Amino acid sequence: MTSPLPSPLPSPLPLLASDLDRTLIYSAAALALTMPDAEAPRLLCVETYEHKPLSFMTEEAAGLLTGLADHALLVPTTTRTREQYGRIRLPGPPPRYAVCANGGHILVDGEADADWHARVRRTLTECVPLAEVRAHLRSTAHPDWLLKERTAEDLFAYLVVDRALLPDTWLKELADWAGQRGWGVSLQGRKIYAVPHALTKSAAVAEVARRTDAPYTYAAGDALLDADLLLAADRGWRPGHGELADSGWDAPHVRALTERGVLAGERILREARGALRAGS
Ligand SMILES: [Mg+2]
Fold first, then answer.
1. Which CATH number fits domain 128-196: 3.40.720, 3.90.1070, 3.90.1570, 2.60.120?
2. Would you kindly state where each structural domain of the chain is located, as residue ranges?
3. Fewest Cβ atoms nearer than 10 Å: which of 34, 151, 191, 208?
4. Within a 10 A sphere around the Cβ of 236, how many other Cβ atoms?
């Protein structure tokens, strides 16, 4: 009896590089379930934190994501640390590649790629060191609205703040100060990120595309830290909420969706499926 022929090697799949928080997955505060209760979508919990459900997607989105697996390589592309990413359990097969720490780490089958990380570290010598940025944050943030001050993966810093009490002027002054030192600032929900300009999601996704011979890349994201990812992609989508929507950011190849909250995540996956089907 002859053994069956090996199945042909799959041709390289296009990449779908998607931000996670407030793009694919949503905390309860970000769901924006504005429809009548009886019409609200069923939700799947995809992250538990300290024994409590934390992040969700719609059941419909979960089905769409699972269905994409044979047609595109999903690359979760997040500012989360590796540890924070590790809590997320997306439906479908575990992603082969993931980008964490805003491009500071590429995970390959769950393991950080040391070569990539070393390369990133070398590019960060051009900007002011993290310690200096952190000292500035600590000395200027006010205890009235500062809830937490953290660093992530020894690459960048973030604050958790009380948005209602945060003065707009402080954020503007921080952005000016940071900009002169090679760092950018992003406000997402209750978090203010200070991230080196050289630390980008797009560079890490380009590396994944190179390694996988991806013929093209789709991207999705909601925040300023996703702008370079969207610009570098062949096609992209952004939700109707978030920093990019609020600032009126656009690009010819990036579709600005009107959906807000968890329904935007579902719509992005529906759009991606349509684009893959059309081969565009
Ligand atoms: Mg986001």
1. 3.90.1070
2. 15-122+199-278, 128-196
3. 34
4. 26
In this structure, whether the domain defined by 15-122+199-278 belongs to CATH 3.40.50.2000 is answered with no
pLDDT for 8 equals 45
Do the Cβ atoms of 245 and 271 come closer than 8 Å?
Answer: no
Per residue in 202-261, pLDDT tens? 999 999 999 999 999 999 999 999 999 999 999 999 999 999 999 999 999 999 999 999
Q: To the nearest whole number, what is the mean pLDDT of the chain?
A: 95
* Centroid of ligand 1 to alpha carbon of 20 (angstroms): 6
Q: Which amino acid is at 73?
A: L
275 CA from centroid of ligand 1 (Å): 22
Measured in angstroms, how far is the CA atom of residue 222 from the centroid of ligand 1? Answer: 5
Ligand 1 centroid to 10 CA: how many Å?
Answer: 31
For the whole prediction, is pTM greater than 0.90? yes
pLDDT tens by residue, 125-172: 888 999 999 999 999 999 999 999 999 999 999 999 999 999 989 999
- Angle at which helix 262-278 crosses helix 59-68, to 10 degrees, equals 30
Mode of pairing for the β-strands spanning 52-58 and 43-49: antiparallel
Q: Hey, what amino acid is at 55?
A: S
CA torsion 100→101→104→108, rounded to 10°?
-20
Task: State the distance from the centre of ligand 1 to the C-alpha of 21, rounded, in angstroms.
Answer: 4
